[in-house]
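Pilot study result, target chain (299 residues):
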Amino acid sequence: MADSRTSPPDAPSEGAPAGASSPEAPPPGGPPSGNGTADQRPQLPPGGEMSFIDHLEELRWSLFKGFAALAGGIVVCIVFRGWILREVLLGPLEPDFLMYRVLALDAVPVTLLNRTVTGQFFADIGVIVACGFVIGSPGAVYYLWKFVEPALYPEEKENLRFSAAFASFFFLLGVAFGYLILTPIALQFFATYQLSPEVVNEFDISRYFNLLIFWALGCGVLFELPVAVYLLTNMGLVTPDLLRTYRKYALMVVLVMAAMFTPPDPISQMLVALPLLLLYEASIYISVLTTRRRRQKQA
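Predicted structure:
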């Protein structure tokens, strides 16, 4: 009579070495079988490594979101276009501009002329785009930070999070300084400077707009000095002793830059040079604190 018993489904086949497992039953949690032609690898977990294509896709979306933040800032400026043109672009031309009273300047009205066919059009578009860039820049920095964040260690995330937040803060602070302090001083100096009473000062709107953007955004970039020093110190490229050694050269550079950006009078130059010197001293202090933290972590 035939034996009706069946062997267990996972029993090794005849001739197989003891302890060998069936290819249909891979160990739990182990790698998939490699003897199939199709790639049966599972999807990577959230914390797994990304392929090069995945990185490109993530970068593409981060750039898209960053540009969307800038575009959102431009849309806001389009909505408030009338106020921006009247108060931001043309505000420093009027003697009753707020900062003239704050700085105790004896302001005179400034006359603008349009000497090109497209001068007013590009000044209109340019000031909207520039203001939108300033408003949307924190969002662009945030999405750039979100792209870099997953590749960082916890302590690196903390350092870069600090840098991203303060980069936006110091940039906006520098833009405000350039527009509210530097622009009124320089504009009134050039408006009242005359070689002869027969020569009338009437400024071209294109040149005026270019100088306004240069003064505001230029100061925004200069005010990023503490953030740059913080990052370079974390990378070990800058030390407090190095900054102290080059302090006198930094003083010379600051004074030269103040002379370039301001009228040739000592009060205006000091108004611009003093914040830059304070930023340099603050950078030294930030470098000291950062170096101390790095040494404590390495100890």
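One observation from the pilot: The chain has two domains: 51-221, 224-293. A full batch analysis is planned for the follow-on phase.
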